[in-house]
Amino acid sequence: MSKVLHAMGDRVLSLLHDLGGLARLLYFMMRGIVHGNFDHVEFWRSMYRVGVKSFGVVAITALMVGGITAIQTAQIIEQFGATSVVGGGTGVATLREIGPILIGLMFAGRVGANNTAELGTMAVTDQIDALRALAINPINYLLGPRFVAIVLMMFCLTAIGDLLAIGAAAGTIYLLINLDPRLFFASFVEMIVFWDFASGMIKAAVFGVAIALVSNYYGINTSGGAVGVGRSVNSAVVASAMSIFVFDYILTAVLP
Amino acid sequence: MIELRNVSKYYGRERVLSNVSLSVPEGTQLGLIGPGGAGKSLIAKILCGLVKPDEGEVFVNGHNVNRLSAVELVEFRKGVGMLFQNYALFDFMTVEENISFPLVNARKFSDEEIRERVDAILARVDLPTIHKNYPRELSGGMKKRVTFARAVVNTPPVIFYDDPTMGLDPVTSSKIFMMLDEFKRTQNTTSICITHDLTGARDICDRWLLLDHGKVVFSGTTEEIEACETTFVKQFWTGTLDV
To answer: Quick check: is B167 in a domain?
Structure first.
């Protein structure tokens, strides 16, 4: 019994330690960003790596999301003749929920894991210490620019992904039940309100913050060689995915 | 002048450094030796302000390193060079970018000056044509020389060399020690050289500190360590058990 309590206590302490570390890191990154202590070369390099190189993965995910949503709804639409709501229904589901969540999960798996692995490798090969020894603050030089790049790109790619998903949904519906895309988009325009799009984009930004913060935190705190890097990447992906669902729950309850 | 006063460091309950004191007068080179895991690299990181000791005081060039604020620490580090055991070259930068990094960061050199300094130091380490190569394209010996070049390119008054010849062949090791010696003589630097290669280091170090399990076993000049009768010190110095 005492062993169980001991293990639980360790877990709670470790969780609190991580939460404290995340809050501290966020504070120091924001302080650097606000004061302009920010490496622009690293920022643009991260924007390219995170944004341009992730576009293909995000585009395929978005197209599949749109297509799958359409396949799931097509049968019901045909059964009930609800063609007048198909664009709106698909749009709401995609913009508010499915788009940000699935793109967020893809982002956590691709960009977050990559970021953690890169920072972790730098940590275990003394490159982070070398930066400090050369009088460079790794938070301002590496973490801040990556943080901003990940959040911005998550936001932009979700917007592009939403468009692709809606287009893919319209195309799939046309192929499955021969519904004219003009009818699909007429329903979309009629039913979608500003907050459907805005709430999805707010979620995307918050997910971006979670992915960037978590991947930076686990990366910079890596120790223990190659095994340590693997452990950090695993922790970062799990923590990012969990935080995406937790924040989605909170934001869905809070946002109009 | 580099000085440690009764420095101790704990990792959990384990005491990894125990009341370590050392003193390196200006313009001299201390050879920091001892078996693996004795705490040698940790001392270099403490001196550089990368790790805080739990007890004791650290002085480098008149700075009390433990008491420096974050901003002061950044300024302090601009006057300190460090050669890392595992190279620690930035793998996303070319050799040229790695070496020029401390100069660019110092923000007091023009592009032309930076280029000249990089060319000069690369010529000095016998690697005049690898500016555009990435660290992954270099051999171990070449990486060590590039690491050395990065550590000394801004001619810091204090340098810490952490195992500068680890894993190198005898010829490359000799070259590296010659460079260390030449740099000390021409720039009058104060330095600490952590090494297992006593053959090469004997000629370039003025003083020695032997560490075992985080404790100082010997501290003194080359003549004193040669005359020391303690079995462990003799074994370590001569590299034989039969003493």
So the answer is: no
